[in-house]
Amino acid sequence: MNELIGKHIVLGLTGGIACFKAAELCRALIKEGATVQVVMTEAAEHFITPVTMQALSQRPVYGSQWDARESNNMPHINLSREADAILIAPCSADFMAKLLHGRADDLLSLMCLARPLQTVPLLLAPAMNREMWAHPANQRNVAQLKADGATVFDVGQGDQACGETGDGRMLEASEILEELIAFFQPKTLIGHQVLVTAGPTYEAIDPVRGITNLSSGKMGFAIARAAREAGASVTLVAGPVHLPTPRGVTRVNVSSALNMLEASVQHASAATIFVATAAVADWRPAHAADQKIKKDGSGEVPQLTFVENPDILATLAQSPRGRSGELYCVGFAAESQDLLINSQSKLVRKGVPLLVGNIGPATFGQDDNALLLVDAQGHKELPRASKLALARQLISEISIRTQV
Ligand code: C5P
């Protein structure tokens, strides 16, 4: 919440059935603290009324370049100068073609052309039929608009209003919101490939029972999101948790510590940064039964024996790329007391350049946390905040330490 405080967004609507999603998007932007100025093309007004958009944005909607409400009669200049971004959602194929040529025969296209290129970014959320999306002319336009500096979001895939199925639907409002929030984050990890482990592991006893722990995965998912926001390409190796995958992050679901090790080793070969947030089970049952272990009424209880799981973090930190620093490894320590001393000793024991301590009972399942960063130079506290806010600070600290 409040991710967009202080941001003024011009929300442009062009003609398309996805205009109904723009209403929800407008609300979501305002809920995050943005102010929103809606500008609609004539075509957009066939799909949703300015009355709806005015009520949601709490500002009069603009539609015409001849609108005399502005004292200088230049809405295209005034509205574009005060914006932190122009977001066009939905952006039709026709409107993209128009932008491409720098045409300016309605207020919205006029504003896009008249905006100061360096300070007012243009973001487009395309929405169209799948054949229109795939058409070479449209694909050419998308590529050229990107080359001209616009940010063109992906399209969604699935059922379309026309009854066809394929690529071209506009992203959902929540997805566009996540993209916009990411857009405003500093791009400190461009060119990096980040690997994150998150969540608990599940160690099977038999086909229906197992041992796991209370890790929610929230911290690791927040770090994956923050790394992607910072411009990295991100792989998230996740134990069994029911959290949505952050946008743009490649997720690999695993179950046991051995699965997690295998997936991590595989993806670490291309990674430049590894952040181990997973609460990996220390031990697993030595033999998982093939069939469900039955209670036979005799009162006898099964005797479980355990073997130690491999340490994923130490394995990667001690690999040749980990040792040379090509793979920068970050460990987590969930402690219940003596955070600094325990974190310092874990830094040495795991052989990592950065160790992040937190108090286990105070973080498991929570939306906020407090972190203690420990490295060879000393330590630094990141005071209690939301896990996403802390993840962004941690990513910024990692980016400073991995600068070449
Ligand atoms: O030894 P301990 O479990 O306290 O270490 C915690 C750190 O090591 C975390 O970063 C955790 O993700 C990682 N770890 C691991 N594989 C294990 C145990 C811990 O990667 N088997």
Describe the structure.
The protein contains 15 helices and 19 strands. The model has no long low-confidence stretch (mean pLDDT 96). Helix 3 crosses helix 5 (107-114). The longest helix is centred in the C-terminal third of the chain and has 15 residues, at 387-401. It is of the alpha/beta class and 404 residues long. Helix 13 (339-350) links the parallel strand 16 and strand 17 (354-359). An 8-stranded mixed β-sheet has the order 12-11-8-13-16-17-18-19, sandwiched between helices. A 5-stranded parallel β-sheet has the order 2-1-3-4-5, with helices on both faces. A two-stranded antiparallel sheet has the order 6-7. It folds into 2 domains: 8-183, 3-Layer(aba) Sandwich (Rossmann fold), CATH 3.40.50; 193-282 and 308-401, Rossmann fold, CATH 3.40.50.10300. The two termini are 34 Å apart. The structure holds cytidine-5'-monophosphate. The site of cytidine-5'-monophosphate has 14 residues, from helix 11 and strand 16.
